[in-house]
Each structure stands twice: as structure tokens, then as C-alpha cells.
Amino acid sequence: MIDYARVEHLVRQAGQMILDANLTAEQVHIKKQHDFVTDYDVRIQDYLVETLSQVIPEATFFGEEMAEDQRACGDGFCFYIDPIDGTTNFIHAYQHSCVSLGISSEKRMIAGFVYNPYTNEMYRAIRGQGAYLNDKRLWTENRRLEEGISAFNMPSKPEKMDDFLDFLRRLYGKAETIRVGGSAALDLCRVASGSNVAYVQTQLQPYDYAAASVIIEEAGGVISQLDGSPVSLQEPCFVVAGAPVAYVEIRNIALEAFKS
Ligand code: 2AM
Ligand code: CA
Predict the structure, then answer these.
(1) pTM, two decimal places
(2) Tens-digit pLDDT profile for residues 197-235
(3) Residue 41 CA: which ligand is closest?
(4) How far is the CA of 1 from the centre of ligand 1 (A)?
(5) Which helix (H) or strand (E) segment is 171 a member of?
(6) Does the beta carbon of 184 lie inside 6 Å of ligand 1?
(7) How far is it, in rounded angstroms, from Cα 191 to Cα 202?
(8) Would you say 166 and 253 are in contact if contact means Cβ atoms under 8 Å apart?
(9) Which domains does the chain have, with CATH numbers?
(10) Cα dihedral 176/178/184/186 (nearest 10)
(11) How many CB atoms within 10 Å of residue 243?
(12) Atom of ligand 1 nearest to the CA of 86
């Protein structure tokens, strides 16, 4: 039995490290074009790996700031860690970033914790036990695209820019309105809470959506790849999510726009 209360406490502590950060220019490094890492991303990941290893000693880790050949999820418990989701927001003091922690077992997500320290909002779900925002149980109201906010994030360098702009043009005609948040995990959790009715990003990494995927599903929402198959827990993929009806609508729009 996993000590989920302890896990949640550690995620909150990690969030506090975001709030306490005193970021200087020397602590910001470029991974690749438009993709940054700060010393705090590494520090928070190290903190979580060290402390979570005590919660489940046999667990493996899939962390954003780990070398790719070190990200290995075994058949047992695996922690998916995004120490700061919304790093660019963090660098610019945008106050919309979070700590994202997913737990899988036998290659299936069993729990997720996504914590926004700026607003003290903890999204969490344990498979089969429902999704919560702090103490409030979440249930995704089944709305259409025209009845809510659709969100997306710009991939750092869209490979198919024309398709992407075509997607936005089509979405603009159907959505009530559109927002770009800059934190995939928070924007996905807002699908669970209903603040967003749907979400699309052309490429995300498992640590970006692992935790949020359980939270969305436990709230009655839907998340998948573009072709409708489950999101990958091993490699990057296209992510579509939404309230059941809005999910179908936005996936159809994406299928039209990205069919080439
Ligand atoms: P990050 O802040 O942890 O890097 C912004 O577009 C959202 O998409 C953020 O959640 C960001 O995660 C994620 N993102 C942007 N570019 C990415 C990439 N190349 N790989 C994975 N996630 C990315
Ligand atoms: Ca990150």
C-alpha cells in the first residue's frame, strides 16, 4: 500500500521550492531552441527522487531532467516527474507553473498529483477513487466546444506550422474561446475541473501528462492520442483531451487539420 498522504506532502514541499526560488540569469540554461531548464528544475527533481525513493524503495523514475537513457519504467512502480511544468512561465514570473507527479504500476497509471503552488491548488486522483481539486470532488460536465474554453500549447518548434494554423482556424470557429496557458499539466487538469472544456498539444512527453491523465479519467473526461489510442507512457505523443462530447469535436478538428 502506497503512502499517498506522504507523496502528496512531498509534492507540496516541491511546490514550495518553486515559491521560494530566487532565480538568477546564471541559473537558466538552454536545452534546445525555446526549451529551457533552470537549476531549480534539477534541484526539485533531485529532491523528489531522493524522498520518493524512501516511500517506494523499489520504484523506478521517468523524470524530465534525467538523461533519456536513465528514464526507465520497470514493470513495478514508476514515478513520472515533471519538477516544474511551465518552466518558461517560471522564468518569466508568470505564476502559472506546477509540480506534476504520476505513479504507474505494471505500465498503467494508478495515481496523479499536480500542484500549483501559486494558487495552492492540488489536483489529485487515485485510480478508482475519484479526482479532487483540494477537497472538492471533480466531475467533468459534458459540454460542447462552443460551451467552454479550449486550450492548447504551442510546441516549442511546430514542425507542421501550416497544419497547426489550420487547426487553430478551425477551432476558432467552434470554440467559445481559446487560451494558451503554458503548463500542459495544469491545462489538462483544468479539463478535469471544467475550467477548460478541451485541450490539444501536438507533442508532449509522458512526464507532462502522466499525472493529469488519471485525474482527467477519474473526473469522467477523456484523454488520448490523435488516433484515439491511449496516451503513451514511454515516448512523446500527440495529446487530445476533453469533456466527452468536446473531446470528440476537437479530435475531429485535429484529424482534419493534421491529416497530411
Ligand atoms: P515544460 O515547461 O515542463 O518544458 C508549454 O508549451 C507546455 O508544453 C509546457 O507544459 C511544457 O513543459 C511543454 N513542452 C513544451 N515543449 C516541450 C517539449 N519539447 N517536450 C516536452 N514538453 C514540452
Ligand atoms: Ca518541466
Answers:
(1) 0.96
(2) 999 999 999 999 999 999 999 999 999 999 999 999 999
(3) 2
(4) 32
(5) helix 161-174
(6) yes
(7) 17
(8) no
(9) 4-138 (3.30.540.10), 145-257 (3.40.190.80)
(10) -60
(11) 28
(12) 2
